[in-house]
């Protein structure tokens, strides 16, 4: 049985698949990864040692340094890759099931934001706990691509 991991951007214009065991799963705190992901740190899964392919569309790229380019969906902006001469890494949150690829190491500690270590101490709420302040949540319709491959997206009736 071949192990397969799939994923893609939020709008579904770009989809990928990894056949085989993916490489290391990590988070990077460096300032360039913070900016590229628009986040406190970048969760990345290396594709090294596995077969990686784009299965729908292709990312657009920003050359973020002389050695690294970053792929993202041109339609919805989802950050998708970190690519250097030693291989391609995929944004962990873009996988259809990120829970199966937990990070095992942190990089770029020089850029680490001090509060990251205490995020789990913050008050915590479910989305539907906020219905009073954000009543639109009650009839929210998601246009996000589902967490599995699709024959066609968006569905025909919506086009
Ligand atoms: Zn997209
Ligand atoms: Zn980084």
Structural overview:
The structure is a single chain. By secondary structure, the chain is mainly beta. The chain has a single domain (4-158), classed as Metal Binding Protein, Guanine Nucleotide Exchange Factor, Chain A. It contains one helix and ten strands. The chain has one helix at 31-37; strands at 4-8, 15-19, 25-28, 42-46, 51-56, 60-63, 69-72, 79-84, 87-91, 105-107. A seven-stranded mixed sheet has the order 6-7-8-9-4-3-10. The longest helix is centred in the first third of the chain and has 7 residues, at 31-37. It is globular, with a radius of gyration of 17 Å. The mean pLDDT is 95. The structure holds zinc ion (ZN) (2 copies). Residues 28, 30, 32-33, 42, 108 line the site of one zinc ion.
Descriptive keywords:
1 helix; binds zinc ion; Metal Binding Protein, Guanine Nucleotide Exchange Factor, Chain A; 4% helix; 159 residues; seven-stranded mixed sheet; three-stranded antiparallel sheet; mainly beta
């Amino acid at each position: 049985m071949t192990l397969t991991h799939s994923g893609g951007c939020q709008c579904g214009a770009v989809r990928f698949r990894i056949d085989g065991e993916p490489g290391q799963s990590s988070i990077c705190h460096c300032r360039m990864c913070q900016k590229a992901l628009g986040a406190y740190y970048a969760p990345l899964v290396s594709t090294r040692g596995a077969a990686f392919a784009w299965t729908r569309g292709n990312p657009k790229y920003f050359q973020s340094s002389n050695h690294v380019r970053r792929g993202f969906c041109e339609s919805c902006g989802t950050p998708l890759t970190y690519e250097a001469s030693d291989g391609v890494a995929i944004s962990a949150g873009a996988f259809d099931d990120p829970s199966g690829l937990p990070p095992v190491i942190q990089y770029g500690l020089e850029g680490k934001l001090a509060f990251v270590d205490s995020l789990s101490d913050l008050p915590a709420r479910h989305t539907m706990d906020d219905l009073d302040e954000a009543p639109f949540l009650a009839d929210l319709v998601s246009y996000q691509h589902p967490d599995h491959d699709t024959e066609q997206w968006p569905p025909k009736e919506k086009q």
